[in-house]
Write a structure and sequence with these properties.
This protein has 249 residues and is mostly helical. Helices cover 48% and strands 4% of the residues. The protein binds iron/sulfur cluster.
Length: 249
Amino acid sequence: MDNPCPVKTVLGFEAYDARGRILVLKNLLNNKLKIDGSIVKWAYSCTGCASCSETCLAIEGGINTPLLMESLRIDLVRQGKVLEKHEKILLSIKENANPYEEPVESRFDFLKEKKIARDSDTVLYIGCTLAYRQPDIALASIQLLENLGVEFSLLQDEMCCGSILKRYGREKEFKALAESNIKKLMDKKVKKVIFPCAGCYRTYKKDYAELNNTTIQFYHLTEFLDQYLKDNSHGFKMPKHVKITFHDP
Ligand code: SF4
């Protein structure tokens, strides 16, 4: 069987796959390896895709390499061992509410003339990537909800979800951002948040879980649509019937 790790496949060395990473981590813990620039670079070379967790079942639920690497990154950040490019991303989130160094005021430019309700207890959370890089997905998600007659609003002051901070081991900044994002939803009395972006959804649903004492419900768009179509007798209005294949990313 091919090695399940995409990074090992591209870079070729065992240090990049789950087994190699565990050996390096063991040597770091036993002070047999010193932390230098190459270790910091190596620590961030794991994409966190969890392909190894799916294939290596040495422990129940699969080996959790993403968690091991995120834990190491937290330690590295605590020791001040960070990558310069991550500092820029952190600054952009603080200044622009997104990691792409895009102006905060153009977050919803993709809407053009389109008007979305300002008040609803159901929010469609667009996220930085869809707002600035994949607006066609944002617009298609809006269109889907509108076609079904779902009432929803957008957060006019939507912020980055902080996924990238979590992945980079920036626990202090991540916690502050998560708490602020949850408070924003509570202040607006939001009950449901729908995410077209899998990354934002995972961040709110899983990574915020420890900090979130609210009853706000988080749905990926596909989950929401599945439930909505079960609860409501009417389906999509299709101009014509077409065959489609659904690809789960
Ligand atoms: S989580 Fe990291 S080590 Fe595991 S397969 Fe993905 S890139 Fe490789």
